[in-house]
């Protein structure tokens, strides 16, 4: 192996060989492991923070969920552009430095995502509260036949559209995807190349575990920023009439991206000081290199043999054809693509599902994802790698283990359908003004017919009767007192409970049934996440071990390319489109057109979200059946080839022994004849 030969015959290393033993090797490998773990942490933190801000971005830029899916999928588009070539050519070049360049690009992309906040103006949320020009008197929501003193029929003055500003977020996410490309395929293959076989699975498990710990801090950062108002420091908070639980609230989404960008930039530093390759010891030492490993090292470092870029390029497509002709690899690829469609769609919109279905704030939803759900995944990933090492699972054992854990998690996930909450009681949306629930509900009725109201506004108030009204005007309120969050509307003709006709700002809680069900949802979510993630590391090692060593980097890179192209890009888009179809009340853009959704049909949301997730996993299980058959045939064929090779080698050795014996016997006979001749003489 070339790296070992270099280590043995290099004067500097040869001088210190006896003194250092294997300690230098271990320290360099551990340094790379720490550096790669930090890079995984940084990219996972920024990626999870993106997931935690989807509702904030929806409201800030007034865009629907499917468009948020396009923005989220743009990260995978960046990967798609370069990952195949980075994985193939990067394996032949200086891998640590390529990873360092990727981290720098990720950092720049993260800063670009935060850029729109410093370009666009202050956030102005929609409200139906009447603002009388040049007056400090309390607002009269229902101004009967009086529109002269109102600006544009009761709406706030129009401001320039910020429609194009989300393009910066998309472009920054594309650059993040390009920068993230070399981290996984080059980093994992580097570890697997230069560590002992018994430690490879454990090291990969450690890296994957750190990559899951990153989202813990990402979601916690998202929780913290969601509590802070988007324009903090530039507006007086006492003038803000909404709270973090309001559907119009936008947190300081930009702040987290600045923090994540700095962390990602720091993660690039260690890779600049790491060597291109590490010497191998133990079972992978020079005297113990198997023919496959020697062949792998020969393919891994053609640059040492002065191979030109053109020669490497010519070898790319034949190598790719060989890889895609591998039936087990192709089946594994199909299964993981379908399962990742389910996983990515579920994870992307899970905080939003918690917000909308269980009526939690964005801050609380992100906090729970970070401190409860993600640690269970991290523990499962690490435990899976540890179990694989302890049980010494072969390829088939790893495949069965991964399939079994996924199937158990699937069965447990079916219980999520039973954990439901009723729709929020909103007059004119989920029920009529006479409290009768049916499909179509008009927002105008006799009690507010005398008011000059807009049907498109969303400024909910909670009546004393426990019913939420779309706006104080549609509740028939004619007077108001107080300011900001403490505003109280009175003389609300649509409320009318025992002479009390008042309403307060914000939606009515109605969380009793959800509060009882929510702990069970969290507990089941933790259990299923842990069980499913147990199979993560064995499944990943199956990908590495089912192919020839010289195809390893390309296989990892193409796997990432395919899953991100066919799962990472489309899954958030069609999941978002299906979620949009369950919207009951859309927000209104100031420049016209619908904005972000304000309230969903929780029953339809639950069925669409969970049904699509589990349907995709069902399809993946069906494909696993021929996958096990193909894997069994491959292992049987490899075993037969090994036996035939051993017999062939044994026959060759036997023939050599016979020739040697023949030569010796001839030599002895010639010696005897010579002795007889001397005797006769």
What this model shows, in words?
The chain has 681 residues and is mostly helical. 62% of the residues lie in helices and 4% in strands. It contains 20 helices and eight strands. The chain has helices at 2-9, 11-20, 23-52, 54-61, 65-90, 95-114, 166-180, 183-193, 197-227, 253-267, 291-300, 309-324, 327-357, 362-391, 395-413, 512-534, 536-545, 552-568, 570-580, 602-680; strands at residues 426-427, 461-463, 468-469, 479-481, 488-490, 503-505, 583-588, 594-600. Strands 1-3-2-6-5-4 form a six-stranded mixed beta sheet, with no helix packed on it. A two-stranded antiparallel sheet has the order 7-8. Strand 7 and strand 8 (594-600) form a beta hairpin. Helix 3 (23-52) packs parallel to helix 9. The longest helix has 79 residues, at 602-680. It starts with a helix and ends with a helix. Residues 1-26, 129-135, 146-162 and 283-306 have low confidence and may be disordered.
| Alpha-beta content class | mainly alpha
Which sequence of strands runs across the widest sheet?
A: 1-3-2-6-5-4
Distance between the termini: 60 Å
Low-confidence stretches: 1-26, 129-135, 146-162, 283-306
Taking all residues together, what is the mean pLDDT? 77
Summarize the main sheet.
6 strands, mixed
State the helical fraction: 55-70%
DSSP E strands, number: 8
**H/E element order:** HHHHHHHHHHHHHHHEEEEEEHHHHEEH
Task: Report the portion of residues in β strands.
Answer: under 5%
| Number of alpha- plus pi-helical segments | 20
> How would you sum up the global shape?
elongated
Output the radius of gyration. Answer: 33 Å
Subcellular location: Cell membrane
Membrane topology: Multi-pass membrane protein
Family: Belongs to the organo anion transporter (TC 2.A.60) family.
Keywords: Cell membrane, Disulfide bond, Glycoprotein, Ion transport, Lipid transport, Membrane, Transmembrane, Transmembrane helix, Transport
């Amino acid at each position: 192996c070339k790296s070992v030969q270099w280590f043995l015959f290099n004067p500097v290393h040869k001088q210190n060989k006896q003194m250092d033993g294997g300690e230098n090797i271990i320290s360099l490998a551990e340094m790379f492991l720490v550096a790669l773990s930090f890079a995984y942490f940084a990219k996972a933190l920024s990626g999870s923070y993106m997931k935690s801000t989807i509702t904030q971005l929806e409201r800030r830029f007034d865009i629907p969920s499917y468009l948020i899916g396009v923005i989220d999928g743009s990260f995978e588009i960046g990967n798609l552009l370069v990952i195949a070539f980075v994985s193939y050519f990067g394996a032949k070049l200086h891998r640590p430095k390529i990873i360092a360049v990727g981290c720098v690009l990720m950092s720049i992309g993260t800063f670009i995502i935060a850029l729109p906040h410093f370009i666009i103006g202050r956030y102005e949320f929609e409200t139906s509260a009447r603002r009388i020009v040049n007056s400090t008197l309390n607002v009269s929501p229902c101004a009967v036949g009086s529109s002269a003193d109102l600006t544009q029929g009761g709406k706030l003055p129009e401001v320039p559209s910020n429609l194009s500003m989300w393009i910066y977020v998309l472009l920054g996410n594309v650059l993040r995807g390009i920068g993230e490309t070399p981290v996984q395929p080059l980093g994992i293959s580097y570890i697997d190349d230069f560590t002992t076989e018994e430690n490879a699975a454990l090291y990969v498990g450690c890296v994957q575990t750190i990559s899951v710990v990153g989202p813990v801090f990402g979601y916690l950062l998202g929780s913290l920023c969601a509590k802070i108002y988007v324009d903090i420091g530039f507006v007086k908070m006492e003038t803000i009439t909404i709270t973090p639980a309001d559907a119009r609230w936008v947190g300081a989404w930009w702040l987290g991206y600045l923090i994540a960008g700095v962390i990602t930039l720091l993660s690039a530093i260690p890779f600049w000081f790491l060597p291109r390759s590490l010497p191998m010891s133990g079972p992978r030492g020079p005297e113990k290199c198997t023919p496959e490993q020697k062949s792998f090292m020969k393919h891994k470092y053609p640059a040492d043999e002065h191979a030109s870029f053109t020669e490497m390029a010519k070898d790319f497509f034949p190598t790719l054809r060989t890889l895609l002709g591998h039936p087990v690899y192709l089946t594994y690829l199909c299964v993981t693509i379908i399962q990742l469609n389910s996983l990515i769609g579920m994870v992307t919109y899970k905080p939003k599902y918690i917000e909308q279905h269980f009526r939690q704030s964005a801050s609380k939803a992100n906090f729970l994802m970070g401190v409860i759900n993600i640690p269970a995944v991290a523990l499962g990933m690490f435990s899976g790698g540890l179990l694989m090492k302890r049980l010494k699972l072969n390829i088939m054992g790893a495949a069965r283990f991964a399939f079994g854990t996924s199937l158990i998690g699937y069965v447990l996930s079916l219980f999520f359908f039973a954990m439901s909450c009723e729709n929020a009681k909103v007059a004119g949306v989920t029920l009529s003004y006479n409290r009768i629930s049916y499909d179509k509900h008009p927002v105008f009725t006799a009690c507010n017919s005398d008011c000059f109201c807009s049907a498109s506004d969303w400024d909910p108030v909670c009546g004393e009767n426990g019913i939420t009204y779309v706006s104080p005007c549609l509740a028939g309120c004619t007077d108001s007192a107080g300011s900001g969050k403490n505003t109280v509307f009175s003389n609300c003709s649509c409320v009318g409970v025992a002479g009390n006709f008042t309403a307060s700002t914000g939606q009515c809680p109605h969380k009793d049934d959800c509060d009882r069900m929510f702990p069970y949802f969290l507990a089941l979510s933790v259990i299923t996440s842990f069980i499913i993630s147990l199979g993560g590391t064995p499944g990943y090692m199956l990908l590495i071990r089912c192919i020839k060593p010289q195809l390893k980097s390309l296989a990892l890179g193409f796997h990432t390319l395919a899953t991100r192209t066919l799962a990472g890009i489309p899954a958030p888009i069609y999941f978002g489109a299906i979620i949009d179809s369950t919207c009951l009340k859309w927000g209104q853009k100031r420049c016209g057109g619908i904005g972000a959704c304000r309230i969903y049909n929780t029953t339809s949301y639950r069925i669409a979200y969970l049904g699509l997730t589990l349907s995709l996993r069902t399809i993946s299980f069906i494909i696993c059946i021929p996958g096990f058959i193909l894997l069994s045939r491959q292992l049987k064929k490899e075993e037969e080839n090994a036996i035939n090779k051993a017999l062939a080698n044994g026959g060759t050795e036997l023939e050599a022994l016979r020739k040697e014996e023949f030569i010796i016997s001839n030599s002895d006979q010639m010696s005897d004849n010579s002795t007889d001749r001397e005797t006769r003489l």
